[in-house]
């Protein structure tokens, strides 16, 4: 028996996985199962992980049974595909899979081209992704990134999704209502069409030669179609000073709720909004649960990777959502009055209380229903909030949907201006000449950044702010009354000086009772004025000397415990 001839020549370098065929087929099966939402995708992924760790080449699928997570079903599928591959491309001498993956893809493309030419001479149509689709956005983003000086030649998934979102009409992260697919699902098609290359872990995405050529054509077509139109729109915008905007609902992402089921209810609310086709953002709000932002529509500048930063103005509507059991708890621990006070001072003129019924949980609340109903009435009549009563989460989502569409229509032809809260007067907004807001909505708005920073709960406070919060801890002193007192006496020291200048005791007792508050200009209750005068006149504590004077002030009026973080 003659010995086998010795092969002379340079050894071909082994790929990172010595079984690239099996790895390729398992990856395709996993992606196919993932697109259909099948749980077998996790089985294929475990098999892929085991195969990557195995350092030796496998001759067939039966040998792969020695690996973990490889059962009879997977091994049989691999054997069938391997035999099919041998029939189409011929069997390679030596170990069956020790050639490079690049050469494998070349053989597959060649075999596919030959098969296409044999079928009636019909040439296979080239794959071109639809404009503004997920594949279109991914190809253009990777191409533009590769043209930047110092580009690393690849992008990670998170940065690719972020940069490509502006070029796509669908979301890369959130599926559309009634569907389980996002714009990112088209990436598997790009990989199968040999337009996109996925390597490493974490995954790195880069264009192949075919993908680079297609992306160049898409980019040239994009510039040819849009250059003239963009110049015209830019010149019109500069002449008129008007920028188109879109109204977006903003949902608070972090709420310190005391009920365990609140996260579930919030997820249900988000799903209902998605079913209703409402565009919304989830971000941190320092006050309120929902509001609406008018966001400027910006056009990506040719040659720049990132589009210009869009300006965001906050519309005048803000919603605080309360379930009846949460309302009961907030009344008992003092949050209810403080939240209303913060909503009044947030700079938005249309606060709304969205009150949800709590069903069977209403029988286990610590306060009687009459007390809760009175608190709701006071919120609307005394505090001037608009109160909306709903039965459950679905009705809350329906109300938010109706409000969003109403505001989108209300502001669609309006020119919006940005102003600073520091330039505002008393904060009240009156429509001139009897024109209703439906015809003339408020168009001078504050930016989202300024609004959210101004509503920070535990930011550094002035002496005036601390004095206001101390006054509100006193029973019978609302936000309007505290604000009226602060207009005359902004600190405790100024109030003490005013008492010291009173000629008689009767004059001191009536000092605060002559102050008017609110829109109806009512007088502050005389009982508080009387208590305050006797405490100030009889105590020997000096506020500039005793660091515990604030505690003494609260104890005099039998207040609840107070902290700046409450």
UniProtKB/TrEMBL annotation:
InterPro entries found in the cross-reference section? DNA_pol_lamdba_lyase_dom_sf (IPR027421), EME1/EME2_C (IPR042530), ERCC4_domain (IPR006166), HHH_MUS81 (IPR010996), Mus81 (IPR033309), Restrct_endonuc-II-like (IPR011335), WH-like_DNA-bd_sf (IPR036388), WHD_MUS81 (IPR047417)
GO molecular-function terms, A-Z: 3'-flap endonuclease activity; crossover junction DNA endonuclease activity; DNA binding; metal ion binding
Q: Specify the ERCC4 domain's residue ranges.
A: 248-359
UniProt keyword Transmembrane helix, yes or no: no
Q: Where is the composition biased (Basic and acidic residues)?
A: 218-242
User: Keywords in UniProt for this one?
Assistant: DNA damage, DNA recombination, DNA repair, Endonuclease, Hydrolase, Magnesium, Metal-binding, Nuclease, Nucleus
User: Which residue ranges are recorded for the region named Disordered?
Assistant: 218-246
Top-level taxon of origin: Eukaryota
Instruction: Tell me which cofactor or cofactors this protein depends on.
Output: Mg(2+)
Q: Which residues cross the membrane?
A: none
Can you cite an annotated GO cellular component?
Holliday junction resolvase complex
State the family named in the UniProt similarity comment for this chain.
Answer: Belongs to the XPF family.
Quaternary structure note: Interacts with EME1.
Q: In UniProt terms, what function does this protein have?
A: Interacts with EME1 to form a DNA structure-specific endonuclease with substrate preference for branched DNA structures with a 5'-end at the branch nick. Typical substrates include 3'-flap structures, D-loops, replication forks and nicked Holliday junctions. May be required in mitosis for the processing of stalled or collapsed replication fork intermediates. May be required in meiosis for the repair of meiosis-specific double strand breaks subsequent to single-end invasion (SEI).
Protein name (database record) = Crossover junction endonuclease MUS81
Name the gene behind this protein: MUS81
């Amino acid at each position: 028996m003659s010995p086998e001839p010795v092969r002379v020549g340079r050894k071909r370098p082994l790929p990172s996985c010595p079984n690239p065929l099996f790895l390729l087929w398992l990856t395709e099966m996993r992606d196919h199962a993932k697109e259909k939402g099948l749980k077998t995708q996790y089985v294929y992924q475990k098999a892929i992980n085991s195969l990557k760790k195995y350092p030796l080449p496998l001759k067939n699928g039966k040998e792969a049974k020695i690996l973990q997570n490889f059962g009879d079903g997977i091994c049989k599928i691999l054997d069938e595909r391997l035999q099919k591959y041998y029939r189409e491309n011929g069997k390679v001498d030596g170990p069956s899979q020790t050639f490079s993956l690049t050469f494998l893809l070349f053989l597959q493309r060649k075999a596919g081209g030959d098969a296409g030419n044999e079928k009636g001479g019909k040439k296979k149509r080239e794959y071109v992704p639809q404009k503004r689709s997920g594949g279109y956005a991914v190809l253009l983003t990777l191409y533009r990134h590769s043209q930047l000086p110092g580009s690393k030649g690849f992008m990670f998934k998170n940065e690719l999704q972020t940069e490509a979102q502006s070029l796509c009409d669908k979301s890369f992260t959130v599926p559309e209502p009634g569907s389980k697919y996002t714009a990112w699902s088209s990436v598997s098609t790009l990989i199968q069409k040999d337009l996109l290359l996925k390597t490493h872990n974490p995954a790195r995405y880069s264009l192949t030669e075919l993908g680079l050529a297609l992306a160049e054509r898409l980019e040239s077509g994009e510039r040819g179609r849009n250059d003239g139109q963009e110049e015209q729109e830019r010149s019109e915008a500069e002449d008129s000073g008007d920028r188109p905007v879109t109204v977006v609902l903003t949902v608070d992402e972090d709420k310190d709720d005391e009920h365990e089921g609140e996260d579930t209810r919030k997820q249900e609310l988000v799903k209902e909004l998605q079913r209703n086709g409402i565009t919304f953002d989830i971000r941190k709000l320092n006050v309120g649960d929902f509001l609406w932002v008018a966001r400027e529509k910006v056009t990506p500048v040719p040659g720049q990777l990132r589009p210009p930063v869009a300006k965001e103005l906050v519309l005048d509507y803000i919603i605080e959502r309360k379930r009846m059991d949460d309302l009961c708890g907030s009344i008992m621990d003092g949050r209810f009055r403080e939240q209303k006070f913060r909503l009044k001072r947030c700079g938005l003129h249309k606060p709304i209380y969205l009150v949800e019924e709590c069903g069977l949980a209403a029988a286990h609340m610590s306060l009687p229903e009459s007390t809760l109903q009175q608190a709701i009435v006071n919120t609307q009549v005394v505090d001037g909030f608009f109160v909306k009563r709903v039965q459950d989460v679905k009705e809350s989502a329906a109300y938010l949907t109706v409000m969003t569409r109403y505001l989108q229509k209300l502001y669609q032809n309006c020119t919006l201006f940005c102003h600073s809260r520091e330039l505002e007067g008393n904060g009240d907004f009156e429509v001139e000449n009897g024109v209703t807001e439906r015809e003339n909505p408020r168009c001078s708005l504050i930016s989202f950044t300024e609004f959210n920073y101004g509503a920070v709960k535990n930011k550094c406070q002035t002496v005036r702010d601390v004095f206001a919060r101390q006054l509100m801890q006193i029973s019978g002193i609302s936000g309007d009354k505290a604000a009226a007192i602060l207009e005359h006496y902004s600190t405790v020291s100024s109030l003490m000086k005013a008492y010291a200048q009173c000629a008689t005791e009767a004059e001191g007792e009536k000092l605060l009772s002559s102050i008017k508050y609110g829109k109806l200009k009512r007088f502050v209750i005389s009982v508080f004025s009387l208590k305050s005068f006797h405490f100030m006149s009889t105590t020997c504590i000096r506020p500039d000397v005793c660091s515990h004077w604030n505690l003494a002030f609260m104890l005099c009026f039998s207040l609840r415990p107070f902290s700046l973080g409450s």
